[in-house]
Write a structure and sequence with these properties.
heterodimer; A: mainly alpha; two-stranded antiparallel sheet; 4% strand; elongated; B: mainly alpha; 15 helices; 0% strand; globular
Chain lengths: 103, 273
Amino acid sequence: MMPLPAIVVLAVVTYGLRLTGPLLRGRVTVPAAAERLFADAATVLLIALAATSALTEGHGFAGWARPSGVLVGGVLAARRAPFPVVVIAAAGVTALLRLAGVP
Amino acid sequence: MRILWRTTVPGPPLDTTLARDTGLVCLADGIVGVSFGAASVAGGLPWWVPVALSVLVFAGGSQIAAVGVVLAGGSPLAAVAAGAVLNTRLLPYGLAVADLVRPAGLDGDSRAHRLRGQQVSRHQVSRRWARLARQLVGTHLITDESVAFALRQPDPARRRAAFWTCGVALFAVWNVAVLLGVLAGSMIKDTNAFGLDATFPAVLLALALPALKSRSIRVAAGTGAVLAVALTPVLPAGLPLLAALGGLASRWNGWRNWLVRVTSSEVPTGDPR
């Protein structure tokens, strides 16, 4: 469950991150290394979340249908397919596999 | 030029390439928004959670990450932490588009009044409030897409036009799409049959792949993913994800060099030894 206060906290933090730049009026630059650290942390989180949400359900394995769909979507994304194609392919492959009886 | 700067809808007419690209991005984000709304509701969250996130946070990746953590059984705290880390990139974005977020002519006008020593009329006060409001709105419109489109433009007027056009269009499309997704998700009985649960990880992957340029970040992300998946059976939900940040340790050398540089440059030169 995601209670409203949690949503508000994330919203305030996010707005604060957006507002810092305009408040400083572009007078300050973020050190390149710090910017890279932020970007790297975000990338690591995205990949880890993609992996866990593709492969696991609760504390166990999610079954083959979902990771297979995600893999197809990932390959398409790596080949620079447009976003809608990636999303629909991932859902479509997973749905077809389930239709065929794959868990 | 002065006239261009003073217009409310700023800048010259958008060229057709920008209009087309904005449309395509809106379409893409719209589909992601529908799947986000549908998958959130299908996962068991009440309808207002994805809707409130979309209006108040308005950052797709962090919304999907936060809901993903919660749907996996993680605590709201872990969800907020994951979303906040993903949104740190908005800080450098804000620095990059600081001039575009403020409405045109703000500085020029206030400086002119100060110079002439004029009294500020009620009309001018209300105009200042309107500008502040627009600046606050503009701040909320800072996204990957609006910043990327703005920075691609050749001159300030077009940058401003691109930022606002893309930002406003995306906000409208994203929120309508999430609402539609919520409606669809609550009408479909068996959402798993449509493979909706595969859309979250696929979107996250598509967001992250372009960043995997260097070998070191690929190692870091791969280590993080293996850590997170391996720890999922044993740790409470949400924690494996934060443990994935341990994958960053593989880049430690680069940061240590940076820290040494930063601290040594701040030490006063008159070292007693």
